[in-house]
Amino acid sequence: MIIISYRTALIRQSKTQHIHTMNKPLVTLFIILMMFPSLLSATDNTITIQATGEVNVTADMILFNVNITQFNTDAREAFAEHKRQEAYLTSLLIEEGIDERYISANPVNISSVRRGNSVSGFETRQQVQIVLLDVTQFELMQVSMIEHGFGAFTGNFTSSKSDTAQKKALKKAVDEARNKAILLADAAGLKITGVKSIQYGSTDGFTPRLRGVSMAMELDSSGSLLQFERTIPVRESITIIFGTESL
């Protein structure tokens, strides 16, 4: 009985060792699989940086947007009244000396509409965009147009130097992105090897910024806010993926 028990113990020990031996490759494989995502991340040696460059330029022009619209229960009357307003606007632009290069107009659209619960008729719509090189024309033209039945128009500042400003803003964004990438790579014990990809888009700001230093001296007898020096921000945003490697 003793011999049998001893042999039985040996057999059990042998089976246990065999099971442990079989489990080692499984444990190793499990560890590798668990580490695999980290290995993928480690081999993707890149740094992604988002940056924005901004340049302020003088707002020396106005984008004047005019919506010509008329409503009448008779389609012919609505269209005729629309054409009268269109003719007046044309004569006003000629009188103000606006070159046709700075005028853009969409075709006249007319559609059936219902106003309120009972009134139905026809409405015309036409959009006209005018670039005013002389910002002082904007206020007086609005008054004249209101007197002749216009009521839907807006104006936004823009700049004749926006193209140059966009290039400067883009350069600022690139320089900022590169400086950030170098700083982060250095902190991680890496160095920048080059650029993998670049994505960028531009944003034109049309909200004027009034410079406070010279306001009081530049205010003339008319008291118009258009006498202030105005600037608008031009922005360029980029996303750059930089390649890296160990130092």
Notes on the protein architecture:
By secondary structure, the chain is α+β, with helices and mostly antiparallel strands. The chain has 2 domains: 46-58 and 162-246, Translation Initiation Factor IF3, CATH 3.30.110; 61-158, Protein of unknown function (DUF541), domain 2 (Alpha-Beta Plaits), CATH 3.30.70. Helices cover 42% and strands 36% of the residues. The protein contains 5 helices and 9 strands; from the N terminus they run αββαβββαβαββαβ. The protein has helices at 2-43, 75-95, 137-147, 162-187, 215-218, and strands spanning 46-58, 61-72, 103-105, 109-115, 119-132, 153-158, 190-204, 209-210, 230-246. Strands 2, 3, 4, 5 and 6 form a 5-stranded antiparallel sheet that branches. The protein is elongated, with a radius of gyration of 36 Å.
Secondary-structure map:
Layout: H1 2-43, E1 46-58, E2 61-72, H2 75-95, E3 103-105, E4 109-115, E5 119-132, H3 137-147, E6 153-158, H4 162-187, E7 190-204, E8 209-210, H5 215-218, E9 230-246
Antiparallel strand pairs: 1-9, 2-5, 2-6, 3-5, 4-5, 7-9, 8-9
